[in-house]
Amino acid sequence: MTAYTAPIADMKFVFEEVFDFYSHYEKFPAFEEATPDLVDMIMSECNKLCESELAPLYQSGDKEGCHFDNGVVTTPKGFKEAYQHYIEGGWHGLSHPVEYGGQGLPQSIGLIRTEMIGTANWAWAMYSGLTLGAMNTLIEHGDEQQKQTYLPKLTSGEWGGTMCLTEAQCGTDLGQVRTKAVPNDQGSYDISGSKIFISAGEHDLTENIIHIVLAKLPDAPKGTRGISLFIVPKLSINEDGSVGEPNQVSCGSIEEKMGIKASATAVINFDGAKGFLIGEANKGLEYMFTFMNTARIGTAMQGVCSSELAYQISLPYAKERLSMRSISGTKYPDKVADPIIVHPDVRKMLLTQKAISEGGRAMIFYAGKIVDQLDQAKDEKEKAKLDDQLGFLTPILKAFLTELGLESANSGLQVFGGHGYIKEWGLEQIVRDARISTLYEGTTGIQGLDLLGRKILLQRGRSLKLFAKEILTFCKNNSMISDNEHKRRMNKFIWPLSKAVVNWQQYSLRLALKARKNRDVVGSASVDYLMYSGYITMGYMWAMMAQKANERIAEKPENIEFYKAKVRTAEFYFERIFPRIKTLSTTMMSNPKSLMRLEEDSFSFL
After folding, report:
1. Quick one: which of 86, 321, 496, 527 is 20 to 30 A from 145 by CA?
2. SS3 for 531-544, per residue?
3. Tens-place pLDDT, residues 184-227
4. E strand or H helix at 161, and its extent?
5. CA pair distance 427, 314, nearest whole angstrom
């Protein structure tokens, strides 16, 4: 019984009013076609695709799952037809280069499509999402011949793409990769090995699948320094660009999973398959992060999608379900009981979903603006600065938003009570589907180590200083304005946010000093530090949204209630969710001794 309608008004508020993307696009000649009329059309038409074709397949796809038969994978009923309509509509190449068949629109506009499709049917969206990541890797690191060979068909969506990283003995620790790449006399490489957990690794949606594979050359250095990256097509490519004979690539099985059952997660075997080196040898890990950053932002979007869909299902139910009377007095005397939305605890869950969905969307679009700037940057110093900025935000987005997306999905199940546990309503599926988002593309623990270990300690807090300065400048500008009424309305956001940002910098410095004496400090603090960082970052988004909404309220527009709802949700966030940083500040600064003093043998349950 799930249904989805894109929250276009909420999306346009962030896109047009909070971040003013149209002024942003005017700075870049390449984005001259990104006009309001075009974006309105994209939102409207994508919503039609999602409502009519993708959302109806969400529960049926989960129930049927993918079928595996002797290496052949068949997607659930309706998936192939929906995919054909998707590529016929030109959706796949929306934000990719015109020279390879794309429409050349900004990456930030692609986020609109990604959110809508991902919320309507995340499992279906996985197939196209993995291809987009493979395309970005080739655009950034492939040579021109490789681009001409693969990108046109990947851009059109006629071919699919994957990233083959994980092996049975290694997930995050890629230094243990065993897949081999042996040079042959044809100028290519024979790839041998097995990869697991390959999303969209095998399916029937596309004519060919282009695998991007991590492997090691015979003389490669040990560890991560010896990893190279290769293109390995499922079917060989003829000189005229047509599909040829099968390569030595096969699907050994697909996983039986907790969720996203309609997305084929495959074991892919390479038995001397022909592969082609991307870039330079032994730089695969460096190149892989192009894909990983794309994938992590995409995974962060799943957190927003999970929250949005759970909210859209929970809200109507809370308005219709009658149970008990309000403790402050009967609200609907003509009914046998009051609808559960009158109860404070139910309202808390709904407001939490709303705050996470809208705050998370703002975080994603904020990052999208940086992605656009990075794409168009010409100066190397400016590129490096923007890359640092995006790299700093990426682990926060990925881990924080997926953890909160799962929380939001669980809140939705709780709103339904016992009915939420029943498949019919769809909440239990969202919970199952959302659970993987906190794991793939690096668990929350890995993202925490990336943020605190690499982006704070190794970079000496360089990106944090810039981000903190930006937030504090915003706070200063909104506390020194002459409009006393506006200042009064904003103080409830400005003061807690500015105090938290100052503390954020001080805690970061203290952790750096502690880590010099005890490296376990990094591991023990990292997840709490990341979540602490996430709540502050979302707080900044809600402060900006409140600021813009208050401006619009002063103009007394016809839809004034829309803007009042933004301010009230911001107030809820700062009163009920933002204070979580107090507990996190205590736990992340705690001595790691309590984690490490118990002897390993004492963990025994015997």
Report:
1. 86
2. HHHHHHHHHHHHHH
3. 999 999 999 999 999 999 999 999 999 999 999 999 998 888 99
4. strand 159-164
5. 8
Q: What confidence score (pLDDT) does residue 175 get?
A: 78
Place of tokens 């699919």: 160
Chain centroid to CA 566: how far?
23
What CA–CA distance (Å, rounded) separates 577 from 504? Answer: 17
Residue-wise pLDDT tens digits, 426-456: 999 999 999 999 998 899 999 999 999 999 9
392-406, pLDDT tens digit by residue?
999 999 999 999 999
Q: Label residue 180 by pLDDT band (50, 70, 90).
A: very high
Distance in angstroms between the alpha carbons of the first and the last residue of the chain: 46
Please state, in angstroms and rounded to a whole number, the distance separating the CA atoms of residues 264 and 272.
24
**403-430 core/surface letters (b: 16 or more CB in 10 A; e: else):** bbbbbbbbbbbebbeeebeeeebbbbbb
**pTM for the predicted model, two decimal places:** 0.96
Which among 197, 119, 117, 192 is positioned nearest to 163, based on CA atoms? 197
SS3 (DSSP) at 255: coil
CA distance linking residue 370 with residue 365, whole number of Å = 9
555 is known as an active-site residue: no
| Residues 6+ away with beta carbon under 8 Å from 450 | 395, 442
